[in-house]
Design goal:
Keywords: Cell outer membrane, Ion transport, Lipoprotein, Membrane, Palmitate, Polysaccharide transport, Porin, Signal, Sugar transport, Transmembrane, Transmembrane beta strand, Transport. Its main location: membrane. This protein is of the alpha+beta class and 354 residues long. The chain folds into three domains: 113 residues, Outer membrane lipoprotein wza fold like; 87 residues, Outer membrane lipoprotein wza fold like, CATH 3.10.560.10; 91 residues, wza like domain (wza like fold, 2-Layer Sandwich). 24% of the residues lie in helices and 25% in strands. Strands 1-17-16-18-14-15 form a six-stranded mixed sheet. A five-stranded mixed sheet has the order 10-9-13-11-12. Strand 11 and strand 12 form a beta hairpin.
Length: 354
């Protein structure tokens, strides 16, 4: 087998000849800058926890002390898995208590004052507002407002976690660390914490947790928002194939999202000293267009090449291919032909030929 960089990838498309990029110090610096830019994209997700703001569908407890008539008996809500502050357990999952459901229009209906806008306010803000507008009806009203069921905001956790699914956002700030904890953590030995994907508003962010820890960035500072999707891929997605003229073709996993070209070749026990062409080590990287992969070429015939290979970082699904020398390819062709030639000679001798 031989990689022919000057031949079309798609035989039916003469324009599908890959553009081979030589691995140079400039390319390595460009790659490092791209990695830094990718990491900096995550920093915009960092923030401080904020108080929970009421949304449509939430259920509120509004208690006016010394005024039991304001707790309307027929406004009850069945507490289920989305309950926030109430205890849960056997016998409690269907507990019904007085509550005020926030309507789709963002309001709650309350005695004396009618519809009151609740959406976008914290419980304490709504409490202060209700106290103010109830003054004409109650002497020195004392109120307690709290959210008893969180139904307006949620995030989704998918992939290699213990308990994937929908997770409601409650008064406990929903950070990335909290989301993974509520999903019973990443499955040990299966989930890849170096390539966690966060989908938000049509944008995708790649999060490398070990790298963040290295930079002393706490995952609990990555705050999630309503409708965010957190996806933990399997570790099998982060492998690199090393093949060609190496001592032992092998698939290598990235470690914490990193694997240099040198490390990949080392995992294959190095290049074959008798058959490998050190000036023709290729890295083939798939792109959205299967006919136009990115191809990188390393000349490792000098010590500089080895230094570059140490700094050139591979990506999941890369293929590292070490080409054979011209003499090796010629020898292999001859080894295929010689048995046929020898057999023909023996046949001619048997019938008295030359």
């Amino acid at each position: 087998m031989r990689f022919q960089a000057d031949k079309p990838v798609d035989p039916g498309d003469a324009q599908s000849v890959p553009q081979v990029q030589q691995i140079t110090p400039a390319l390595v610096r460009e790659q490092q800058a791209a990695r830094e830019a990718e990491s900096s994209g995550v920093t915009q997700l960092l923030g401080e926890p904020k108080p929970y703001k009421i949304g449509p569908g939430d259920v509120l407890s509004i208690i006016a002390w010394d005024h039991p008539e304001l707790v309307v008996p027929n406004l009850t809500y069945t507490i289920g898995d989305t309950a926030g502050t109430l205890p849960s357990g056997p016998g409690l999952s269907t507990q019904s208590i007085p509550g005020f459901v926030v309507g789709d229009d963002g309001t709650v209906q309350y005695p004396y004052v009618g519809k009151v806008r609740a959406v976008g306010q914290t419980a304490s803000q709504l409490q202060a507002y209700l106290k103010k507008i109830l003054v004409p009806y109650l002497r020195n009203p004392q109120l307690t407002v709290s959210v008893i069921a969180y139904r307006s905001k949620r995030i989704f956790v998918e992939g290699q976690v213990g308990q994937p699914g929908v997770k409601p956002i409650t008064n406990i700030p929903m950070s990335l660390a909290e989301a993974l904890s509520e999903a019973n953590g990443v499955v040990p030995g299966s989930g890849d914490t170096s390539r966690i994907q966060l989908l938000r508003g049509g944008k995708s962010y790649l999060i490398n947790l070990p790298e963040l820890a290295e930079k002393q960035i706490d995952a609990s500072k990555i705050m999630l928002a309503d409708q965010d999707v957190v996806r933990v891929p399997p570790q099998t997605y982060n492998q690199v194939l090393v093949t060609g003229e190496v001592s032992r073709p092998v698939s290598v996993s990235l470690h914490d999202g990193r694997l240099s070209l040198n490390e990949a070749i080392g995992a294959a026990s190095g290049v074959n000293p008798t058959s490998a062409e050190p000036a023709a080590i290729y890295v083939i990287r798939a792109t959205p267009d299967p006919a136009k992969p990115d191809v990188f070429k390393l000349d490792s015939s000098s010590p500089v090449g080895f230094a570059l290979a140490e700094h050139f970082q591979l990506k999941p699904k890369d293929v590292v291919y070490v080409d054979a020398t011209g003499l090796t390819r010629w020898s292999r062709v001859m080894s295929l032909l010689l048995p046929s030639v020898t057999g023909a000679s023996v046949g001619r001798a048997a019938v008295g030929g030359y």
